[in-house]
Recover the amino acids of this structure.
């Protein structure tokens, strides 16, 4: 289905992306992370929930047998961090998927059909954007019972607004372009034009926004879990691991430090790739 | 003959680019004398703007560089080796410059009055010491100048922002900014290209009258031969980073020596003549990273022959006094008659075509 | 300018109504009877019924909505069950603290962010630029709560020398009452340092990145070339001509970062035990104290709205092209 011209452009984009050393680093990191997340059961030296003799094994400083130490219950932090990657990454990906689907749909409809529908939809977006995302998240979660599914859903529901604006802007521009007029002259229905001709062209900024958005989503999930409103213990999420170490922080700094570092590097990786993508896809940049 | 104000010898400005080194200006020498108007003519990509910017060293130094051996002298003083502080005195002081796009060339967040006063204050301060031209005095001088360039209601307009004025007005502001410091030389880089034709003429007349009043020399950079005919005393034709012809304006228009000049003149449509097609110079302007070997105009020249594989040097004087041309045709002028010339109708009626090379 | 301000204020009114409406909808979206959700479930059913009647929760929806609207606009936010006092009092105590923290963070974000970004732009590609870019990215990717905890760790660790110790919780020290006026100010400032840093530094990194790009773009503009052609010193060209233009798009970032700032304050206030709106919201959620939750959400919405308005107005001040429309 991809025309030759589009394949050419794809190749060119990849070439430019490759030149961005940091973006490649980011991509490598993401691959590494996804790999560890998928292979966590095989890579983790211990069962993340395993508790043996608590008094003997708890609060151990990082050592060869426990590279990131143990927590209050004697569980190995390294293993928990690996499993936490599964949680954070899957929530992140799913939530972003929800967000871009919703955002693209609403933005496309608003931009393409215009008129009052557009105004109403965009006012709604403005309204939702009047709230800090975390406040919305916290309130929404509070109204229901916290669970991984709820967290994912709610993250998706609070993250689509930016995408919808981007898509709407792109649709507005593309709509006026000649090939769309040509399609209309040929008698194609509006929905078909929207789906087959307009949307493929607006995808590029959405991809960039999505990549950068995963980082923010992971941060938001971590904050929720930290507050106890996200992933519930004993399931390991980097956010709730940091929270669990808070009381013993002065004596056992490793419980809060390592999961937090995991968050930082993960978000960094996505930001690097997002930046690289943005520069590579920006048509204004002269090679 | 008035003394030389600016002397440029063997100026070379190269740029480092992705595709290799671009030799934008590749060995240019010329003079501008006090009070005269010299036009630097050529198509885009020939290096004329770069020449202008090189005089004032306004180019970003990486990726650009002036090669050793280039010389730019202002009344005998070498500018290529001058200290930055001296260069700043010259810029806007002894040599001013105006640019093509008045909208983007003026700072959008300051009023036009402020921008003109700034120029005045900067250079008065240097010559008369700070405090002598206080803010109020500079403001008065700026208003005077706004009036002088033909801006109506200058007291009021002083507080206007650039986006509130038309293109022609903005260019007048640029001229006021440039001339208020009474420079000896004004470099005008395509000053009228972005303007409507009617406004163009007004601006040119304004420049001409101010020039006479102040005795300023003008280096006019343009691709429009019509303007050249109107205002210039002497013309320098540039192609592919080099000067290919130099002559007084009458001599150039009457009897162009270089085939490129010939082509340019032929390309100007004549309202009186009836033509089926516009004449044009075949081919495209070559890239600065890959100038052709030998005579750089050879690939597009209708008269080219085997000799043109060698680079002709400038200074093969043409028939008129004070002209020079970079072309082997001066040695073998009979080829000019037998060649095919440009356009569908060359002077002797032949059809178009590029000669053997 | 005044006309512009008034116009924007009028435009804000429907959005305010929208915010209240949204909160109303959310409350009625939750599973279960809003009455039981609205009240402490430990209270006996008769009392619940009476309160339900009292507050008109058995009336038709649109009537409830109008009452709701009216009460919000008159400032009557109901009664807090976890704190046993009117919600309005809770807000009155908590709001100034959040505003103070946010304001200080905002200043930090913009001053540090713009300064770092500007230096990076002027020294493009230097070692300083590259190091700063990396550090910026690192900081930008940090969760605020984690940074807060790391700061607390650092500043309460025995390794930290006495004179560098900073307070890690609260707005003022225990012996605040006994301090003289200067001491009091110093005490407040010291308490502000760590939380505002944790709250703002990630956004400062974001601003720095933006500023770098913006200034670089401005420096490439024609009018900068004109300024140089006028013989102005490089310093004047950058500081006077370039900077002001580069700051214009930064102001629009305010609209983006303020919600982030307010959202972040929820977490930071919890970490640093800062008695502001964020912590009030959080505690209310844990205690299922819905009146406070709703009032706090409403106020956050208002804060963001107000902040956006301020951002638009400063935009008009900085960019003359907007004013003279």
């Amino acid at each position: 289905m991809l025309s030759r011209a589009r394949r050419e452009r794809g190749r060119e984009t990849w070439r430019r992306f490759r030149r961005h050393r940091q973006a490649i680093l980011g991509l490598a990191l993401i691959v590494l992370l996804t790999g560890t997340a998928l292979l966590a059961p095989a890579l983790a030296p211990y069962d993340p929930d395993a508790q043996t003799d608590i008094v003997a094994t708890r609060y151990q400083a990082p050592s060869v047998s426990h590279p990131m130490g143990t927590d209050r219950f004697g569980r190995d932090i390294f293993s928990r961090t690996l499993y936490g990657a599964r949680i954070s990454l899957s929530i992140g990906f799913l939530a972003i998927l929800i967000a871009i689907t919703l955002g693209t749909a609403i933005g496309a409809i608003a931009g393409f059909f215009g008129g009052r529908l557009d105004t109403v939809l965009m006012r709604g977006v403005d309204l939702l954007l009047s709230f800090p995302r975390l406040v919305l998240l916290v309130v929404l979660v509070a109204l229901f019972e916290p669970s991984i599914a709820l967290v994912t859903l709610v993250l998706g529901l609070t993250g689509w607004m930016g995408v919808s604006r981007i898509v709407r802007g792109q649709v507005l521009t593309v709509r006026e372009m000649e090939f769309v007029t040509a399609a209309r002259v040929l008698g194609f229905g509006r929905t078909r034009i929207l789906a087959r001709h307009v949307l493929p062209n607006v995808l590029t900024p959405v991809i960039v926004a999505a990549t950068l958005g995963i980082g923010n989503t992971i941060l938001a999930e971590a904050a929720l879990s930290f507050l106890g409103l996200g992933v519930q213990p004993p399931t390991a999420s980097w956010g709730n691991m940091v929270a669990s170490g808070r009381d013993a922080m002065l004596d056992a700094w490793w419980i809060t430090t390592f999961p937090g570092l995991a968050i930082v590097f993960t978000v960094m990786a996505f930001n690097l790739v997002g930046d690289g993508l943005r520069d590579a896809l920006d048509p204004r940049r002269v090679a | 003959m008035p003394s030389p104000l600016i002397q440029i010898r063997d100026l070379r400005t190269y740029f480092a680019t992705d595709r290799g080194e671009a030799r934008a200006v590749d060995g240019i020498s010329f003079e501008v004398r006090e009070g005269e108007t010299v036009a630097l003519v050529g198509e885009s990509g020939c290096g004329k703007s770069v020449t202008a910017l090189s005089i004032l060293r306004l180019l970003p130094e990486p990726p650009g560089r002036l090669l050793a051996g280039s010389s730019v002298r202002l009344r005998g003083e070498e500018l290529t080796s001058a200290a930055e502080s001296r260069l700043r005195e010259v810029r806007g002081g002894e040599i001013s410059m105006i640019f093509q796009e008045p909208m983007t060339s003026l700072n959008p967040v300051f009023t036009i009055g402020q921008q003109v006063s700034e120029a005045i204050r900067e250079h008065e301060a240097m010559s008369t010491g700070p405090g002598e031209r206080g803010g109020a005095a500079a403001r008065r001088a700026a208003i005077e100048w706004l009036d002088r360039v033909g801006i109506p209601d200058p007291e009021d307009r002083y507080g206007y922002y650039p986006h509130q004025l038309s293109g022609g007005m903005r260019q007048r502001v640029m001229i006021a900014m440039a001339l208020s410091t009474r420079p000896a030389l004004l470099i005008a880089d395509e000053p009228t290209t972005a303007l409507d034709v009617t406004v163009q003429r007004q601006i040119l007349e304004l420049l001409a009258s101010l020039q006479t009043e102040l005795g300023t020399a003008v280096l006019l950079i343009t691709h429009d031969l019509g303007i050249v005919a109107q205002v210039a005393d002497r013309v320098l034709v540039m192609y592919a980073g080099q000067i290919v012809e130099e002559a007084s304006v009458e001599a150039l228009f009457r009897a162009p020596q270089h085939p490129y000049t010939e082509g340019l003149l032929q390309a100007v449509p004549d309202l009186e003549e009836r033509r089926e097609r516009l004449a044009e110079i075949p081919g495209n302007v070559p890239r600065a990273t890959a100038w052709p070997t030998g005579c750089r105009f050879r690939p597009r020249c209708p008269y080219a022959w085997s000799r043109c594989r060698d680079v002709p040097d400038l200074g093969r004087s043409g028939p008129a006094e004070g002209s020079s041309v970079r072309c082997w045709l001066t040695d073998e002028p009979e080829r000019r008659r037998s060649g095919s010339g440009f356009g569908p109708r060359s002077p002797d009626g032949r059809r178009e075509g590029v000669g053997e090379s | 300018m005044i006309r512009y301000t008034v116009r924007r204020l009028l435009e804000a009114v429907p959005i305010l109504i929208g915010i209240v409406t949204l909160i109303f909808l959310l409350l009625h979206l939750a599973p279960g009877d809003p009455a039981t959700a609205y009240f402490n479930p430990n209270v006996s059913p008769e009392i619940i019924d009476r309160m339900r009647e009292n507050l008109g929760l058995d009336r038709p929806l649109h009537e409830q909505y109008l009452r709701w609207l009216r009460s919000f606009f008159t400032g009557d936010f109901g009664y807090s069950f976890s704190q046993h006092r009117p919600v309005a009092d809770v807000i009155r105590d908590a709001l100034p603290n959040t505003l103070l923290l946010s304001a200080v963070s905002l200043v930090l974000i913009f001053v540090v962010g713009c300064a770092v970004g500007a230096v990076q732009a002027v020294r493009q590609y230097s070692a300083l630029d590259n190091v700063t870019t990396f550090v910026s990215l690192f900081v930008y990717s940090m969760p605020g709560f984690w940074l807060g905890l790391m700061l607390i760790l650092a500043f309460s660790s025995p390794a930290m020398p006495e004179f560098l110790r900073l307070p890690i919780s609260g707005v003022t020290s225990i012996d605040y009452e006994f301090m003289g006026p200067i001491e009091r100010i110093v005490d407040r400032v010291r308490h502000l340092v760590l939380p505002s840093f944790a709250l703002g530094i990630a956004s400062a990194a974001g601003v720095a990145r933006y500023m770098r790009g913006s200034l670089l773009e401005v420096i490439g503009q024609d009018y900068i070339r004109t300024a140089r052609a006028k013989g102005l010193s490089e310093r004047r060209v950058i500081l006077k001509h370039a900077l002001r233009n580069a700051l214009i798009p930064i102001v629009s970032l305010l609209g983006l970062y303020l919600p982030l700032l307010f959202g972040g304050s929820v977490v930071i206030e919890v970490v640093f035990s800062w008695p502001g709106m964020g912590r009030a919201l959080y505690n209310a959620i844990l205690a299922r104290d819905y009146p406070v939750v709703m009032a706090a959400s409403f106020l956050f919405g208002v804060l963001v709205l107000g902040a956006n308005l301020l951002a638009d107005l400063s935009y008009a001040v900085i960019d003359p092209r907007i004013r003279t429309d």
